[in-house]
Amino acid sequence: MRFIHTADWHLGRIFFQVHLTEDQAHVLDQLVDIAKEAKCDAVVIAGDVYDRAVPPLDAIRLLDEVISRLVLDLRVAVILIAGNHDSPERLGFGSRVMAGNGLHVFGTVGNGQPMVTLRDEAGPVHFYPVPFAEPAAVGSMLDPAVARDHGAVMCALTDRIRTMHPRGERAVVVAHAFVAGGSETDSERPLSVGGSDRVERACFEGFDYVALGHLHSPQSAGSGSIAYSGSLLKLSFSETGQTKSINVVDMDARGTCRVERVKLNARRDVRKVRGFLHELLETPVVPETKEDYVMATLLDTHAILDPMGKLRRVFPNLLHVEIARLSEADFRDRSQPDLRKLNDLDLFTSFFHEATGTPLSADQAAAYESVVEALRRREREDLQ
């Protein structure tokens, strides 16, 4: 069995006011070509197909085109789950009808565990989709004591899969989660506040392959068979050193998997430049990198009039300018934390202490987390 594992397409993404649809179409063309040339049996998409719950029309059209080419033209099965950026109900609309043509879409976690079974010469391979689920949303399906956080919910769901899985047959789990120890970037939206979104690797042990989504850096979660494919594109300047790819997985008759990361070539790279303004303005023009998305860090200590306009003569797609003296630790009061590196709860805790003169209590922190989680659920469904 050969299949592609991909995730975090984030169709409809806006990067510093730039719509990335054409960039996404460019790499998705490569994905379709890889599926064709490698003669893949399936493409597994582990969540966050869209960047927001109500995607723009061009993002919907792009997904329709790519899925049509895979399912109708190449006759490749597609297994797709919702991530925390997707609207589960919207994504899952018409899924039972589409499954008849080889498109298997799973938006919500239900009372029963769905399963997609594909076959090769060695027999069946069972794919178990586990869409992203808020603990509160699945509490009625599980023991309330279990549905306390993301880790407990995920372990309960994978235990349910182990119970139903036919003994001796091959199993692939498709999930959208944050496995503890994974490498984060600036472009992932937290799954919850307060650090309760972590899932222990032990939840996924015993399966032949676990196709994960959420973290944008391609990586293994302890073993090669528990893996993140990463995002299709660099979605923040913290990802400049990454190589974006998809996983092509070859599974043998015993379930042993060989994983190859196949590089994707972006229409424009994302990179950072650093120096004094006059130095950057003298940068030689290299045709291969001229159109890259660029962030510039200026070392000048004096005020500069319109640095963005000046630098765009050399870097046409300059997206952001940072002044080193205003942002780096050497020029900051070292007694103060870097607010950009604090999570929501830490920021609120600091604000509460500043505003009231007293520390935030455990009950107050729990109330804050409950309110924020509710607001994020509403945001995902565009109910604000």
Instruction: Identify the overall geometry.
Output: globular
Taking the alpha carbons of the first and last residues, their distance comes to: 44 Å
List the total number of helices.
11
Question: What share of the residues does DSSP label as strand, in percent?
Answer: 15-25%
Rg estimate, integer Å: 23 Å
Give start-end ranges of low-pLDDT stretches: none
Characterize the main sheet. 6 strands, mixed
Number of beta strands: 19
The SS-based structural class is alpha/beta
Helix and strand run:
EEEHEHEHHEEEHHEEEEEEEEEHEHEHHH
**What is the mean pLDDT?**
88
Q: In percent, how helical is the residue content? A: 25-40%
User: What topology, given as strand order, has the largest sheet?
Assistant: 6-5-4-1-15-16
Which helices and strands, and how do they pair?
Elements lengths: L1 E5 L7 E2 L2 E2 L1 H17 L4 E5 L10 H17 L3 E5 L6 H5 L2 H5 L3 E4 L9 E5 L2 E8 L4 H4 L11 H15 L5 E7 L1 E2 L18 E2 L9 E5 L5 E5 L2 E3 L16 E7 L5 E7 L6 E6 L1 H5 L11 E6 L8 H5 L6 E6 H4 L16 H13 L5 H19 L4
Parallel strand pairs: 1-4, 4-5, 5-6, 8-9, 9-12, 10-11, 12-14, 17-18, 18-19
Antiparallel strand pairs: 1-15, 2-3, 7-8, 13-14, 15-16
